[in-house]
Please model this.
Amino acid sequence: MEQQYEGYKDLADSLKSASALLNLERKSQLHQDIITICNHLVNPSFRIAVFGPFNHGKSTLLNAMLGNRTLPIDLIPTTGAAITIKYGSELQTRIMLVDGTEIYRSGTEVLQEFAILDGNRQMRKDVASVEIFCPHPFLETGVEFLDLPGTNDREEQDNLVREQLLSADLVIQLLDARKLMTLGERENLRDWLLDRGIKTVIFVANFINLLEPDEQKQVQNRLVFVAESFRAELPPGFSNLYRVDALPALRARLKGDVAAANSSGLAAFETALQNIVEILQPNRGSVRLPRVQAIASQIQLSLKAKIDHIAIEIKSFDDKKNTKIEIKQKAANLIYKGFAISVGELRDWLALPNLLTKYQAEAAVALAENNFTSWQTNTLKKDLTQLQLAAGKWLDQAYEFFHEERPQDLLISFPSKPQVILPSKSSNTDDLSEPGSIAVGGGIGWLLGGPVGAAVVGSISYLLNKNIQNQDEQLAKESYHQEVAKLCITAIKDYLSRFSAQGLSILIEYEQKAEKIICFELIQEPLEITSKRETLQQLQNGFNQLLQELEKVKIISNYQPYKEIPKSPNINKKYSPQPERVKTFSQKDPDIKQQRENTAKNTGTRVKFVSPPPPKASPSPRPEELEAKFRDWELSEEIARMKAEMRMPGSQTGKQQNTTQSNKTPNQAQIDKITHAYDILGLQANASQAEIKQAYRTLVKKWHPDLFVNQPQLLKQAQEKMHLVNEAYTILSEK
Model:
């Protein structure tokens, strides 16, 4: 038993924690119910509550059962507090005040001061609890009685009674046979008892002795109807309806008149009550847990509503944030790709073999014709400028999009102009007028006039076609103008080699700077959203903990536990695209690779060779084409987003609804039963709970058996009608 109550303590703690997460008002009904049921869960005593409207004889019945005037009858109908009666070696009263003061008195006369209503018929605000200790053998078994204030007098007292009923393991509802089961009492049965999982209820009819013999029989029939209409959950073989004439029973007990006590119904009721308690007391959990289930369902429903609301807010924020990030990522990747292609084209162009193939011949001729400066400006610089602008344009676009570091212009300068030292003229030739003269930068055409100059220019093309690198052994056999041509070719090769190395080095540094421009910062989420994530996690943890504790005590729930929320990395970091670079011609040539490594070694820069992607059938797009594609992509992205939003209501949501409906489809018999219940109450299908309750009240007022006491034929019809109405209301309330 101790282990069982330890589990109930964990359940009570979980209920309180869940209540705290809801931030309920202290005076709210749900908050009060949670506190009451939590305290009751860990209470080892078996509590029996006696309640009913004023003047129904509650205290008289208790005095008769206890065998003395423990509760002064003249307090009725002014009792303003719930009075707990426990076992004690002598009759004493303990009053607990709100400020913590304890008042002990012998006897019960002190109740006249603290347990009555004031002049305005209000309960005293300074009284926290009232307890009476009484030496009775039934109480010594761990039973305690709870004498509740009369109902149907003040809302404040009704609220107190409603709250205290949750703390009772067994409820005795006293009925007045003279005005049996008013509408208010019937509503209390539903709202205060059945709807809250309180089903261990015994009805005791008082004042039957005051009725005429023929009236007693009619009342008895109506009592049976009332008892049968209430689905009490008592041990098998026990009735939930008893007759006790309270005042005669008290008088007989005080006089010691056993026969009179028996004829009043007291003895039969006490015997049944003791037997019921003996069965229920060892397993109080079976009585208390249905009340927990009813309250836990309210808590779970409120928690879920709060969780769903916050989750929707967070999801909305995350969706917007992720959409922006996704767009920026696509933009960054696209810009990087365009930049990589442009840089790759420039890198290929700067590769020495490509420069020699494209420019060596015409540069050597320009040098020989004293036209190198013009050629460098109009040809080499023009081509370089176009490639530099194509690469830089992507970084400008990245800066406009992401507003990171402002890009610098890519500027590759030219090396000093080539120099040529003419060889000495041989003794048998007079082709050249000034052997040994020096031609620097501006060309040597001014030394090579006439046929000799033309011969040098022609020899440049001839020697390049013959691949002069394999002709060194024939140098002595060549003519003088071929020697001069070879010097021009060598000078241009040296010039282009220096230009290539210098340009590739600058380009490597430029690519490294681009990483700080083609990127964007993932902004830290607002503290408000972070706080909501923490709140959501707390709510879900509380929900899951409550669900776990309910499962431990075998309370079935319709909810599933929430999965743990992955923590959002709430730190600032940058996103930099790293797609594969486009393979260039220079990466295919091992000589060029060696040249780039040498360049990096000489400049102190580390060079990486990235594996190329599979070759494409179509050529790389020009920068202008990429820019056009980027603009098209922006439009396509916006259109796709709008299309996705337009599809949402009819796609995923619809599937979820269909799945839910298919999982919860009732069988046809249940459908017919529900449909018939709506017809009995005169309602349309799927009426709200408020409409169901209002229809029930209307029919009760119309067909209550008390209305047809003097009309036997209509009375039977009313009873049958009310039986159907009660059954229909039960079906629709539980569907």
